[in-house]
Amino acid sequence: MKFKLTPIEKKWVWYDVGNSAFTLLVSTLMSIFFYELVPGAEADGSRYVSYWSYATSISTIIVAVLGPTLGTLSDLRGARKKIFSVALFVGAAGCAVLGFMQHWMWFLVLFVLAKSAYSLSLVVYDSMLCDVTSRERMDEVSSRGYAWGYIGSCLPFIVTIVIYVLYSMLGVLSMRVSMILVFLVTAVWWVGCSIPLWKSYRQEHFVEACGHPVKTGLKNLGGVFKELGRKKKILFFLLAFFFFIDGVYTIIDMATAYGTSLGLNTVSLVLALLVTQIVAFPAAILLGMLSRKVKPQYLIIACIVAYFFITVYAIFLDREYEFWILAVCVGLFQGTIQAMSRSYYAKIIPREKAGEYFGIYDIFGKGAAFMGTLLIGIVTDVTGNQSIGVGALSVMFLIGLAFFIVAVRSKDPEEEAFVQLSPASPPAGERAEKE
After folding, report:
1. Which residues have a Cβ under 8 Å from the Cβ of 52 and sit 6 or more positions away?
2. In angstroms, how far apart are the furthest CA atoms of the chain?
3. What angle, 0 to 180 degrees and rounded to 10, lies between the N-to-C axes of helices 45-73 and 369-383?
4. 259-273, pLDDT tens digit by residue?
5. What separation in angstroms does the CA of 57 have from each of 120, 206, 330, 371?
6. Cβ within 8 Å of residue 219, ≥6 positions away
7. According to the model, what pLDDT value does residue 404 have?
8. Residues 89, 118: contact at Cβ < 8 Å?
9. pLDDT of residue 354
10. Looking at the chain, which terminus has fewer C-beta neighbours within 10 angstroms, N or C?
11. What confidence tens digit (pLDDT) does each residue in 37-83 have?
12. Contact present, 278 and 421 (Cβ < 8 Å)
């Protein structure tokens, strides 16, 4: 049977289309522009990789600290949309202003602000999945989000590539003008794709504030951490997610930086990562459809194993065609492991506490990415060899796989109480649209 998104599900997917443009910019042209701003980067590529790694680590630490608190506050009646709006517009404004930065230090400072706000918007956005759809539709809706995000972000990305080529290869534009245009295009696309969800979203599940909202939120957050002690499935999944998604996000954040430091052609690297986006679209759709017949946990395991071999392959990468092979392989599994992890987690948590739990999810997810980037930065500084740092990521996938298997086998006493949903109930998105 053909899977059709409801109107509110489509609008939720559109935010993935919008924010993915920023993600793609971070992993491609943004690090290339930074490379050109750092004095002496061409002579010492390891110095550039270290700076970029440390900035990315700082951003993820900020999100790890603020994510759970803002996620908890977003569970209060009427708060989710407000917090989402602030994070969205701070992130987009930071992206737009980045193009005007010509000193590498100020560029890094603004990058940390924009990336942190972007990640915090995703904490709230991911929790919205529990409001816009039903449990049995989560796998495919989540997959469609990542799939359309990958292919949709290609449009602004192609525009930014043209701008970059006009600067780097043809000399028609100056570096300053090309930077301004690239970052403005991305910011406008991000905000424009977000408007449908921003206008139509309604919070279906929430908790009432007892007293001051901030005090209530912090109290609820403390309660969630206590709950994890008895909810073994959620706890072990988060531990697994901490390790395997760390490797995924590190590869996304550091791919172009790594290739550039090896002396590979920057335009070729950017085009290879465009191929990653194109490959990720049908891969996420098809594997999302496969979740109807194959349990999502098996798909997650397959993706973890695939990423282990991808990381090992990256150790020996030193030619452009090898980077293209790597880009295709990453595209096959990148969207699926993210989408299946998000929907699997959404199905095992209480819906009314989605913001709180997704705030914690972000600690173990995007907040965990500082390990990989920090590891690459330190190992590269110590050894002067980027490949050794990349190779260390393979261990993260093995540890993540072990924890995930434990999570799948774990049973919580109250698990059935919040995963059961009447088949006759329409998707939350349909209820919202009808009302």
Report:
1. 31, 34, 254, 257
2. 65
3. 160
4. 666 666 777 777 777
5. 15, 32, 22, 7
6. none
7. 95
8. no
9. 82
10. N
11. 877 555 455 566 677 778 887 887 888 778 877 877 888 887 889 99
12. no
Return d(Cα 108, Cα 140) in angstroms, integer: 36
Predicted confidence band of residue 181 (pLDDT cuts 50, 70, 90)? very high
Residues 204, 207, 208, 211, Cα dihedral to 10°: -140
Residue 368 has pLDDT above 80, yes or no: no
pLDDT for res 422? 38
Spatial distance between the Cα atoms of 21 and 1, rounded to a whole number of angstroms: 31
Q: How many angstroms separate the CA atoms of 434 and 427, rounded? A: 11
Structure tokens at 405: 């298997």
Pick the residue with more confidence: 124 or 428? Answer: 124
Q: Which residue has the tokens 């282990």?
A: 308
Q: HSE on the CB side for 154, CA within 13 Å?
A: 17
12 or 335, greater pLDDT: 12
Specify the amino acid at residue 319.
R
Residue for token pair 């920057």:
266
Q: Rounded CA gap, 421 and 434, in Å?
A: 20
Amino acid identity for residue 66 in this structure: L
Q: Kindly write down the DSSP assignment for every residue of 363-419, as one continuous string.
A: HHTGGGHHHHHHHHHHHHHHHS-HHHHHHHHHHHHHHHHHHHHHHHH---TTHHHHH
User: Computed over its alpha carbons, how large is the radius of gyration of the chain?
Assistant: 21
